From TrEMBL:
<dbReference type="InterPro" id="IPR057661">
    <property type="entry name" value="RsdA/BaiN/AoA(So)_Rossmann"/>
</dbReference>
<dbReference type="InterPro" id="IPR004792">
    <property type="entry name" value="BaiN-like"/>
</dbReference>
<dbReference type="InterPro" id="IPR036188">
    <property type="entry name" value="FAD/NAD-bd_sf"/>
</dbReference>
<protein>
    <recommendedName>
        <fullName>RsdA/BaiN/AoA(So)-like Rossmann fold-like domain-containing protein</fullName>
    </recommendedName>
</protein>
<dbReference type="Pfam" id="PF03486">
    <property type="entry name" value="HI0933_like"/>
</dbReference>
<feature type="domain" description="RsdA/BaiN/AoA(So)-like Rossmann fold-like">
    <location>
        <begin position="2"/>
        <end position="54"/>
    </location>
</feature>
């Protein structure tokens, strides 16, 4: 995972949708999320994509 990206304070944690722009979703490494190394970034990408996909 990388540092920087879309501030998670601006996103719904339930849908990954931008709070200011309806219909705009962010997932994976484009978000400002920091985690452990070792494949967890793949899990975050898949999980956040799955969550956002439920709402599109």
């Amino acid at each position: 995972m990388t540092l920087g990206g879309v501030d998670t304070d601006h996103l719904s944690s339930k849908t990954m949708e931008c709070k200011n722009i309806k219909g705009l979703y962010f997932i994976g490494e484009v978000m400002d999320v920091t985690g452990w190394l070792g494949g967890y970034n793949f899990q975050w990408c898949w999980s956040s994509g799955f969550v956002a996909g439920q709402w599109v």
